[in-house]
Amino acid sequence: MPEADLKKRTKAFALRVLKLVDTLPKTTAGHTLASQIVRSGTSVAANYRAACRARSTADFIAKLGIVEEEAHETLSWLELLEESQLVPAAKLTAIKREADELLAIAVASIKTARRNRTADSAIRIPNSEFE
Predict the structure, then answer these.
(1) CATH number for the domain including 68?
(2) How far apart are CA 128 and CA 115, in angstroms?
């Protein structure tokens, strides 16, 4: 997926998260879950943008690792939100699917970057063990 498309997609996800938390009940549980979901859900977009500005492959991989962690954490909070019955499961299906897809994209991108980094190393170092 092109970088610009994923930037838009992660930003749209963050906006969906913000809209979702505005619908939560004004209870202690609602406030607590809202705070956690906002923090991790918006962090997916912010950290993806940071990864796009990475200074090296290692930096890119590290920043995408944060995207992976935050997407996974958001998914966990969404599952808790569903299981606590603060929001009907049907209303969470699409946003949970998007969190899961963003998580899968982050994992695949990390694997690709690691594979490419290893291939680049072998090319630059002719006597490398990776030949």
Answers:
(1) 1.20.1440.60
(2) 15
